[in-house]
Structure to design on (618 residues):
């Protein structure tokens, strides 16, 4: 990545799964190895400790360990956007400060998600307090719109309000609504806003509409295929490449996340650190695991990826 | 409280609001003063850092400060049940360990609430890991059923499974569903189970059905009235006393929690520590505050309570 792309992250970002020890602590060395592999496969960047990374199931201390492991890895920090949201303002501040101090490309911040139907004023106050307390011009905030899990949508009115208050700092949004019209509406209302699709299924559509790329769970597995879409997105063949990506997505999406991704990583790498999930998430059953791998193996575009096994 | 009631908490428990400094840190001395006042008013116990106490909006460190402030207060620790739930297992363990080390009467534990529709197996694993990691026979867990906010119900099947696995430790449940039939069903299925109603509106019904009492936000304000219901629950006059309690509840329930409770506490005590809420919760508007206080002042049973102003 050159300096410009470092300042404005673009392309294919994996919402990285978090390998764990048998005692359910983060496995830092397996995590760094996974980040390296994702970048080798063609990811433009990695987003640890978000939804797929079981960020909310990890303590603040454990999440800080992941940020520190990334910092010590030697990987350019411009490749990382860290999930730093929390229901607790003080925790979001601590995580975001660490991510900024590490010179990461940005932070992905869920709204506080325990209290239901918070006011726009209350949400704006959460993000304002966070930004003011971090107090660092290097901060780049990606708002995290995932209403099915957070139950708290990021409305266009909130985006407008925060962009006006913090024009350089509110850098973009990850749209995990599954509703393409939400991204399309934002890109129309706020040209140049850094909209990442939460699904690689919208990667091409998002790029064509002026969006920035995707931050996706499935690209833990399909980084190489998503990279081909991104590399060719201005060309006619991009549609066919997107279809190849979608075929894999259709298989992965039959199984719960992050269990499905961890199962594939375990098979590909043989590393036991992929078999553990923090409760309440559970690993796939043996039968699910077999069916998933058979489904993937039936797709020719998965051959080079599965060849690592 | 004698040793028996300390071992099996019963009666009227306030889900205590958390006073904050202007910098949004817990105000320990105002917190302890509030606990003392609640007990003087007739509360049998206090439940800090739950939903009303903005527990999920506080960092683990801030929640530990509250537990420590209670420990140093000189109040008998058998009067406290602490909210120690978290989406992160390691955080729930750290908080629960501290609450047990402090000899509290128990802990009130939300299920992990970020991931939606977790399996019963996954929830059982969360509570099992928590109990096993704390590893202390003194632990008494109250499951926290608040599906509107947590989105994750505690099903009777889960209660059965956990009671079977940890018969002495799974002590009861706080039912904040607002659906009386849920409590009634549990008491029928599990006689002697420590069911607290999450609303003082069900206090009398719950006691008559074999339940343990209530853990309620409104009793921050109406402890004296709820105490009268509890003291008289076997007598005919209990219905009239419950009605007097319900009249106040009807006024308080028009306004958002915990803002309404904090507003009343600010008026009653004159302490500025009650004016701050952690985002996304917001204080009442001036108009709401005036209407709330007028509504309360119109009720004769509120006179002795408001006389503190």
């Amino acid at each position: 990545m050159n300096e410009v792309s470092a300042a404005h992250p673009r392309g294919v970002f994996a919402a990285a799964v978090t390998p764990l020890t048998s005692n359910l602590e983060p496995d830092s060395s397996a995590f760094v190895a996974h980040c390296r592999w994702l970048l080798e496969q063609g990811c433009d960047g990695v987003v640890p400790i978000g939804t797929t990374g079981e960020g909310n199931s990890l303590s603040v201390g454990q999440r800080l360990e992941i940020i520190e492991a990334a910092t010590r890895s030697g990987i350019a920090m411009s490749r990382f956007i860290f999930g730093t949201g929390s229901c607790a303002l003080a925790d979001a501040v601590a995580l975001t400060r660490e991510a900024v101090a590490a010179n990461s490309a940005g932070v992905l911040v869920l709204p506080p998600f325990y209290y239901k139907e918070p006011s726009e004023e209350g949400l704006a106050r959460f993000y304002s307090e966070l930004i003011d307390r971090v107090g660092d011009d290097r901060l780049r905030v990606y708002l995290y719109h995932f209403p099915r899990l957070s139950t708290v949508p990021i409305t266009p009115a909130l985006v407008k309000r925060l962009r006006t208050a913090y024009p350089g700092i509110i850098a973009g949004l990850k749209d995990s609504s599954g509703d393409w019209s939400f991204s399309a509406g934002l890109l129309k209302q706020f040209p140049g806003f850094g909209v990442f699709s939460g699904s690689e299924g919208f990667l091409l559509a998002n790029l064509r509409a002026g969006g920035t790329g995707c931050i996706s769970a499935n690209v833990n597995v399909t980084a190489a295929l998503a990279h081909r879409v991104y590399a060719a997105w201005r060309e006619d063949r991009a549609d066919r490449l997107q279809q190849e990506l979608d075929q894999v997505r259709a298989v992965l999406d039959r199984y719960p996340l992050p269990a499905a991704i961890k199962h594939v990583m375990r098979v590909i790498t043989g590393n036991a650190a992929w078999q553990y999930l923090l409760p309440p998430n559970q690993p796939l059953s043996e039968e699910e695991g077999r069916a998933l791998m058979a489904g993937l193996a039936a797709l020719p575009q998965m051959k080079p990826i599965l060849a690592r096994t």
Q: What stands out?
A: The mean pLDDT of chain A is 96. The first strand of chain A starts at residue 11 and ends at 14. The interface with chain B takes residues 24, 51, 56-62, 87-91, 94, 111-116, 118-119, 121-123, 125-126, 129, 148-152, 278-282 of chain A (CB under 8 Å).
